[in-house]
């Protein structure tokens, strides 16, 4: 994984891949797009014929007063966009948006052509098209598609995992307590969340370990135990598979990022 000193807008035009954005791992495909913050760690893996358009920009490209802005949420609440008065919280934009009507894709293609041809007025036009993409993205955040809630059984599994991730979790024990069929719950969980229960447990544990690596001085072996892994070798394997760096490397990156301000 890597980070950089600018914003990155990436639009997927074809193929598939797994994209890691901080601790979030998403499968991406054509029509998906995302904006990466300053210093935010991200990377691609398991790419299959992946093609994309990348737009790298500084915040002052959108407006001069935004110089020094370091997160997409700050960007949306700054200057030309501040009239939305929308609180996006402290977290980076750790989600992938989807271009439902093709507007963002069309704008990205127009920006690419404009940049390649370098005609008179190229950069003012690029700025306007970028601003339009940001506004369309903001609209999607304010007015998201209606999302079907999880079924009661799957919601119970999610709550069970989120509250007990540090323990030795077995679906059999949960199903016995709730009088569910293991096969039924396994199938429903994968259908509704898009991942297996094992994958979800790993996701939660690695997210929690990232928080501890960044916010505490605990040794890696102790962090592994606190999130449910007694086998440090296995923990290191799972961590590197999901984050593309080892736990120690991740901590070092976080320390360097904090030192850089």
UniProtKB/TrEMBL annotation:
One GO MF term attached to the UniProt entry: DNA-binding transcription factor activity
Coiled coil (UniProt feature): none
Domain HTH araC/xylS-type stretches: 155-253
PROSITE patterns per UniProt: HTH_ARAC_FAMILY_1, HTH_ARAC_FAMILY_2
Keywords: DNA-binding, Transcription, Transcription regulation
InterPro entries with a match to the protein in the record: AraC-bd, Homeodomain-like_sf, HTH-like, HTH_AraC, HTH_AraC-typ_CS, RmlC-like_jellyroll, Tscrpt_reg_AraC-type_HTH
Record flagged with keyword Transcription: yes
PANTHER family (alphabetical): ARAC-FAMILY TRANSCRIPTIONAL REGULATOR (PTHR43280), HTH-TYPE TRANSCRIPTIONAL ACTIVATOR RHAS (PTHR43280:SF28)
Name under which the protein is recorded: AraC family transcriptional regulator
């Amino acid at each position: 994984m890597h980070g950089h000193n600018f914003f990155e807008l990436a639009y997927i035009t074809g193929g598939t891949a797994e994209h890691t954005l901080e601790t979030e791992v998403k499968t991406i495909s054509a029509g998906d797009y995302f904006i990466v913050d300053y210093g935010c760690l991200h990377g691609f893996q398991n790419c299959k014929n992946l093609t994309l358009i990348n737009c790298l920009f500084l915040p002052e490209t959108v407006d001069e007063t935004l110089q020094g802005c370091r997160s997409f949420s700050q960007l949306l609440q700054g200057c030309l966009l501040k009239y939305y008065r929308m609180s996006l919280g402290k977290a980076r934009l750790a989600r992938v948006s989807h271009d439902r009507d093709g507007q963002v894709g069309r704008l990205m293609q127009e920006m690419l052509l404009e940049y390649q041809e370098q005609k008179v007025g190229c950069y003012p036009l690029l700025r306007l098209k970028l601003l339009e993409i940001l506004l369309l993205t903001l609209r999607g955040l304010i007015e998201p598609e209606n999302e079907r809630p999880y079924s009661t059984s799957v919601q119970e599994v999610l709550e069970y995992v989120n509250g007990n991730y540090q323990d030795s979790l077995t679906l059999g024990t949960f199903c016995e307590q709730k009088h569910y069929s293991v096969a039924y719950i396994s199938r429903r969980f994968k259908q509704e969340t898009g991942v297996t229960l094992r994958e979800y447990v790993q996701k939660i544990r690695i997210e929690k370990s990232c928080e501890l690596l960044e916010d505490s001085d605990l040794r890696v072996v102790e962090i592994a135990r606190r999130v449910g892994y007694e086998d440090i070798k296995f923990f290191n394997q799972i961590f590197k598979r999901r984050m593309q760096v080892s736990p120690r490397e991740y901590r070092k990156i976080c320390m360097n990022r904090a030192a850089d301000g």
